[in-house]
Amino acid sequence: MSPDAVIVGTGPNGLAAGVTLARAGLSVELYEAAPAIGGGLRTESLFDSDVVHDICSAVHPMAVASPFFKAFELTARNVELLHSPASYAHPLTDGVAAIAYRDLVTTCTGLGPDGPRWQRLMEPLLEHSDAVVELLLSGPGTLPRDLAAPLLLARRILAHGTRLHARQFATPQARALLTGVAAHSVGPLPSLAAGTVAMLLGHLAHGGGWPVPRGGSSTIAAAMADDITVHGGILHTGCMISDLRELPPAKAILLDISPAALSRITAGRLPRQYQRALARFRYGPGAAKADFLLSEPVPWTDPNIGQATTVHLGGTRTQILRSENATAAGMLTEEPFVLVVDPAVADPGRARPHKRPLWAYAHVPNGDTTDPVELITARIEKYAPGFRSTVIAQRGISAAQYEAYNPNYVGGDISTGAVTLRQSLFRPVPRMSPHRVPLPGVYLCSAATPPGPGVHGMSGYRAALEALRREFGIRRPPLLGVDSAAPGTPRSPQPRRTTSAPTFW
Ligand SMILES: Cc1cc2nc3c(=O)[nH]c(=O)nc-3n(C[C@H](O)[C@H](O)[C@H](O)COP(=O)(O)OP(=O)(O)OC[C@H]3O[C@@H](n4cnc5c(N)ncnc54)[C@H](O)[C@@H]3O)c2cc1C
User: Fold this and answer.
1) pLDDT digits (tens, 9 = 90+) for 438-451
2) DSSP reduced 3-state for 414
3) Cys-Cys with 28: which of 135, 147, 233, 289 at CB 3.0–4.6 Å?
4) Mutation test residue for ligand 1: of 237, 239, 256, 409, the one with most atoms within 8 Å of CB
5) Quick one: average pLDDT of 351-370?
6) Phi and psi dihedrals of 360, rounded to 5?
7) Is 9's C-beta closer than 6 angstroms to any atom of ligand 1?
8) pLDDT (tens digit, 9 = 90+) per residue, 100-117?
9) In sequence order, what are the beta bridge partners of 363?
10) Do 475 and 469 form a contact (C-beta atoms < 8 A)?
11) 190, 453, 402, 131: which is closest to 291 by C-alpha?
């Protein structure tokens, strides 16, 4: 029997769409190219069977804050989100680091003369955090529930996302600390889009936090997949879909894929105007990642850095601007912005005696083929002399290889599309209903649609709600919580998953 809905891709957005549709009582089948589900939520042992490494995402401020994951009750499903005392740290070359503790007061104390400014920046956002998150993760076109949120954001984004940002702080520590968060947008700085990212992630560091899941990011994907199968859904892995005609007939097709793949998979059937708009979609710089197995913790010059799971290596604000703008212009710099994650700081169970995983990626030009291990090692060594001698094993993934690993990372762009103001408002094309593809029943639900990159599930959730409304006449969002199986939901006694021969790897 044909399913009601099929989904291509099982990243957090494909899975969120699957959960939503299955919870609405529809029969759902998901098709994943890779041998394992999860997209950006995969965790594997790389060097030692006892130690696991997150292959893509590792730190989950958005999974805590996202309205989808709140409704899904992520933490009631065997997913334990663990926090380190500091959300993130930012060493500077004088050996002292700026540190964003989860506790705002401790952070402000550490920032000295900029403490009161940091407090004035973050405290109002924290007071209105639910509304701020809802506004930024619901995508354009959503009316704010709390008018304070857009006003607070607008003032701050203008101050920190434009050239005015140079005047906001007096010390290099506070300047670098916020610019490091803005650099998560992976693109030219300053920009309004990067300012928005800085406000969202920056305030969450002192609120819901920047946690890691106990045991790795794949636990989030597993919880979602379990919910889908318990509600009758079927997941197929090892199935690369190259043409929509390979899918079984279904009333709704949701695609957790890139706009470039959308053009290919629809094989000339898109209206010309939409196809032209899609061709204007731009991809951002790439990420190139190194995974390490260490014999001991990173020997940071400032030992306080060891309290943070996430560390930003970019130097001063001016240095970050220089390297990010060069990278965005297509130049590989010797000192790129590097994000380091030491998951065992928050989740000590990830480490074994004298074996500790470390995850780090550098921003590089889109499509770059350089193995980043040496670049990243040198960058860490600068702030942690002796790091090199702690490395037991290592491996690099260039930006180009990331695309081979996951076709959504076009040229290694892990955001599935540049995070610019235009592409934050209109993603992937200017359209009232950004998830709808102008083909009957077809929806795009990946990070290439609002609200953009990150593990929040909101692109998949919103696309699924729209499909429910338009294709099935279901207007009421289904309940997603642990004890809230929708009435009439088909429940299969055993989770069902199938695996076909891998075609992708
Ligand atoms: C190195 C790295 C670090 C990151 N760190 C973080 C982090 O710490 N926190 C955070 O929130 N985010 C992080 N991200 C970003 C985050 O992983 C992504 O934004 C998120 O996974 C996007 O979800 P998605 O569902 O849109 O797509 P993806 O997670 O990319 O999943 C898409 C899935 O679809 C499959 N697919 C694509 N095309 C086809 C096809 N034609 N047929 C079948 N299957 C197909 C792919 O194989 C993949 O499994 C990181 C990403 C990377 C790469």
Assistant:
1) 999 999 999 999 99
2) coil
3) 233
4) 256
5) 98
6) -155, 135
7) yes
8) 999 999 999 999 999 999
9) 287
10) yes
11) 402
